[in-house]
Amino acid sequence: MTPTYSPKEMMICLAARQMCDGTTAFIGVGVPMLAAALAMRTVAPNLVPIFEFGGTGALLKRLPRAVGEARTFHRAVAATGICDIMETAARGFIDYGFLGAAQIDPYGNVNTTVIGDHDHPSVRLPGSGGANDVGSLCWVTIIILPHERRRFVPRLDFLTTPGYLSGPNARKAAGLPERTGPIRVISTLAMMGFDRASGRMMLLATHPGVTIEEVLDNTGFDLLIPPEGVGVNAPPTAEELRILREEVDPERIYL
Amino acid sequence: MAAQEPPASSATVVTPDGDRAPGMAQREAMRILARGQGELIQPPDLEAFREWNRIHKPRALIDKRMSEHEAIARFVHDGDYIATELYGMVRGPMSLAREIVRQGKRRLRIAGQGVLELDLWLAAGLVEKIDHTYIGLEMYGISKALRRAVESGQIKTLVEWSNAAIAWRFKAAAMGVPFIPVRSMLGSDTFKYSAAIAVECPFTGQAVCLLPALIVDVALIHVHRADCYGNAQIDGITGFAAELARAAKRLIISTEKIVPTDEIRRYPERTIIPYYLVDAVVHAPFGAHPGEMAYEYCMDEPAIQEWVEASATAEGAQAYLERYVYGVRSHEEYLALIGEKRLAELRAGAEGRE
């Protein structure tokens, strides 16, 4: 029997499964923290979580609620500062980066700055924070957001953080490090990747019980469909859910 | 001495309107690829900074202990450019931030990397211009105080940067150089609405982003321990304290503990901020409340939640300020309001080192 789970738990499990053992991951507040903590108890026991204000290699026995709090460097291997962490990313030492988004476009560019015009916004959002640096400097990024038409837009109100910008060679032309960019978008409905030739977003697999039409209806631009077809993501296993609920977030801070 | 070979690039300096810059016509130089359209709120003046550091920063060991009230009254002025470190949830200089509100400093220009502390200033209407990277409430959501201040037009100028960009701008100032080349922000609207400049690197030919040094009028940093002269030490992550302390014309340190200089001398490698950078030392136990202080006390989540809920409306935010800021005369009175019992619980809740 398949256990019941929330869309958030589905996203966390999928994000955790993307991580390889023995890699480094730039972790932000929320779902990425849970995904990293789950990955460290399942597929990637030697994952090194890195937090923007200096925490490096914490064991994540207790879930952080803020990117600078003591839990981000409790029993860590190093506690440095933001310049060191961002420079570590710039030197090519950080494999994965996670991003949230208010809006995303077909090239995986992300907006977390404003809805509406920059100088006269209808909604002022928090801003880049470390997101622009993560999206510029980590080897690959994974973007996690709710799947809604108003969020998956053909054109962003504001390009806070670069995905593939306007196409496959645009990052290099802009001066960003080569062979970097988003590899996955994990939403409440599906998991997307990117077409190497065009840099455009492609539907890889829907969540169990979600139809392709439902995904397309909730996306404000044309999602590419791979020639080999669209798969279905495996639901969270009972073991993943147990770890998540009992070990990762027993206080139910995020779940 | 051998004659300098000219660089390989044949590009010449071109001003934004297409004219050759005066006096530069015959010189080889970096080619400007793009300019951010944001205002350079605090243009770096390195000679003035050196001169300031020569004249206004005594090398003598002077006892700089004073109250929050005296430190803010003496060293913070209307219109100043101010930066805080780390941020409101974590080792933020909250007792100093509240004192700034209490004294009603106006037309502040700020480095916008913050959570609760900048929220208080925005809610109190103290801020005019922001070099912005992140103002929000982390897991508690977006800042309603920021939304009201920006969407109403109260903030006159808001210039975008990334988090690393702000820290690297402090680093450039700390290095005593006018700018620092980095590989963030390129190709984005974050760049377009910043005051950065993208150039063709004269060494590699690749596009690179130049960030102007950011020398602040006043910096506020909360630390674990300091001596009376300002030699300051931080436990755990150091955020951007080292860079900001060296990028400030005036530096106010608040500290959990005042320790004898002998203790500083026993572990000099832990001194992240040497005394000569410091103008004021404020003894502020629980100075980061309601945020946490690593190994000392944990976050006061209900107290943070109280601000989150109060700040949902302008009236709620004012009522909060009345109770916790204007309604008390000092940090000591604020702590009395929080209560000894609660403070003891927060101390007990700190994560240890095991």
List keywords for this structure.
heterodimer, A: 255 residues, alpha/beta, Glutaconate Coenzyme A-transferase, eight-stranded mixed sheet, 7 helices, 14 strands, B: 354 residues, nine-stranded mixed sheet, four-stranded antiparallel sheet, globular, disordered N terminus
Describe this structure in words.
The complex is a heterodimer of chains A (255) and B (354). Chain A has a single domain, classed as Glutaconate Coenzyme A-transferase. Chain A is 23% helix and 20% strand. Chain A contains 7 helices and 14 strands. In chain A, the strands form 4 sheets. Chain A has an 8-stranded mixed β-sheet, sandwiched between helices. The radius of gyration of chain A is 18 Å and the shape is globular. The two termini of chain A are 22 Å apart. Chain B is α/β, with parallel strands linked by helices. In chain B, strands 2, 3, 4, 5, 9, 10, 11, 12 and 13 form a 9-stranded mixed β-sheet that branches. Chain B has a 4-stranded antiparallel β-sheet with strand order 1-7-8-6, covered by helices on one side. Chains A and B meet through helix 3, strand 9, helix 4 and helix 5 of A and strand 4, helix 5, helix 6, strand 8 and helix 8 of B.
Number of helices of chain B: 13
Identify the CATH homologous superfamily of chain A.
Answer: Glutaconate Coenzyme A-transferase
In CATH's first tier, which class of chain B applies? Alpha Beta
Mean of residue pLDDT of chain A?
96
In the CATH hierarchy, the architecture of chain B is: 3-Layer(aba) Sandwich
> Order of SSEs of chain A, N→C?
HEHEEEHEEEEEHEHEEEHEH
Fraction of residues of chain A in helices? 10-25%
Largest interface: A-B, 61 and 63 residues
* Derived structural class of chain B: alpha/beta
Low-confidence stretches of chain A: none
Question: How many discrete structural domains of chain A?
Answer: 1
Q: Give the total of domains of chain B.
A: 1
Strand content of chain B: 15-25%
Q: Approximately how much beta-strand content do the residues of chain A carry?
A: 15-25%
Query: CATH homologous superfamily of chain B - what is it?
Result: Glutaconate Coenzyme A-transferase
Oligomerization status of the protein chains: heterodimer
The CATH architecture assignment of chain A turns out to be 3-Layer(aba) Sandwich
- In whole angstroms, the N-to-C terminal distance of chain A is 22 Å
Number of strands of chain A: 14
Shape of chain B: globular
The main β sheet of chain B shows up as: 9 strands, mixed
